[in-house]
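Journal club prep, shared notes

We agreed each person brings one worked example of a sequence with its structure written out as tokens. Mine is mitogen-activated protein kinase. I'm keeping it raw so we can talk through how to read the token line rather than staring at a rendered picture. Sequence first:
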Amino acid sequence: MAEKGDCFASVYGYDLGGRFVDFQPLGFGINGLVLSAVDSRACRKVAVKKITLSDSRSMKHALREIKIIRRLDHDNIVKVYEVLGPKGTDLQGELFKYSVAYIIQEYMETDLARLLEQGTLTEEHAKLFMYQLLRGLKYIHSANVLHRDLKPANIFISTEDLVLKIGDFGLARIVDQHYSHKGYLSEGLVTKWYRSPRLLLSPNNYTKAIDMWAAGCILAEMLTGKMLFAGAHELEQMQLILETVPVIREEDKDELLRVMPSFISSSWEPLTFWRRS
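Then the structure, token by token:
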């Protein structure tokens, strides 16, 4: 078993020395590959996320993610034990010297996406998980952090005690509530089906509310077993939202047409929600 795990580590280019053994594939985070492993020093199973530092952009993203995860410590946040360099060396804040970094974090048995593949949750389980999700979000937001990619695949579950933990902060940002970030917050965030109307209308100007919207979409998915708004593209996504919550200011209608992708025709037939007003 150990030999097979070492083979996985070799195939995926994991080089952490002999401390970590029995590597097994878990999945992909937004910024890197994730394997499970056994930490022989601490005698515990962990998740190991590999981040390749190939250029200044990836270095910047890695530094941001590491800075954020090091400042978060909460029962409903996936715990990060340490960040290591090649051969398990201590980075000591000198990330620029290395071509790869490894985030050693708490191992969780499954995630909400896999759980939902088995069917809808009971109302009691949905309430329990939603309470923990909101509890974790409250803590994240109190630290002036936006997660920006909340979705079932980034919400991890301990099947033994039904503890929920938010993970994968690869797209997270630290924001100062007293400073306007308009024009500086990047686009293309949050998996499309969990984007709020504000994020669809004004991708560079948003607040902590985008995480709350995503949380609401996740609650609906837990109760119904299907995504609440599963649009094929941004315009259809907005249509589905407005058909469910048909409240929009007149000025927002013009903004919607202005910011939607140019490949969508302005004569697109399904724009029926405006004809009803």
